[in-house]
Structure formats: structure tokens, C-alpha cells
Amino acid sequence: MTENLLQKLEEKMMLILSEVEELRRDVLCLTQENTELKLDREKYLTEKMYNERKLQDLLSLFDAVKSMESTVMTARDVAA
After folding, report:
1. Signed CA dihedral, 70, 71, 74, 79: sign only
2. Which of 44, 52, 70, 74 has its CA 20 to 30 A from that of 26?
């Protein structure tokens, strides 16, 4: 009887060890995926900041052109 109980205990331990190993692999995969997502997020935020700066530069350029156009129109009206 004792031998039978020991065998059942050993089987359960092997099953538990197998489950633990599977969980360990899952954790490794999730850790890697998490790292990749963090890198993707950082890349996205960097690109977003770059695009925001470019947009601000374009708006400033647009305002400068508009201001020059207004100045030329005013000078043209004064000359006429």
C-alpha cells in the first residue's frame, strides 16, 4: 500500500512540476511580449513628438507667410 501511495505522490509531483514549467514558459513569453510593447510604445511616443514639432514648424511657417502676404497687400493698397 505504501508503495502505491508513493507512486501516486510521485505522479502528482511530476504533474505539478510540468505545470510549473509550463507557467514559467508562459511568464517568459509574456515578459518578452511586454518588453516589445514597451519598445513599440516608446517608438510611437518619439514619432508623435517629432510629428508634433514638425506640425508646429509648419504652422509657424504658415503664419509667417500669411503675415508677409498681409504686409504685401497693405503695401499694395497704400501704393494704389
Report:
1. negative
2. 44
The per-residue pLDDT string of the chain (80 residues; one tens digit each, 9 = 90 and over) reads: 799 999 999 999 999 999 999 999 999 999 999 999 999 999 999 999 999 999 999 999 999 999 998 887 887 777 76
Predicted local distance difference test score (pLDDT) of residue 74: 81
Burial 13-23 (b: 16+ CB within 10 A, else e): eeeeeeeeeee
Residue 63 one-letter amino acid: D
Cell (9 digits) for 5: 501511495
Q: Closest Cα partner for 44 from 52, 32, 54?
A: 52
Residue 46: is it exposed, middle or buried by C-beta count within 10 angstroms (0-12/13-18/19+)?
Answer: exposed
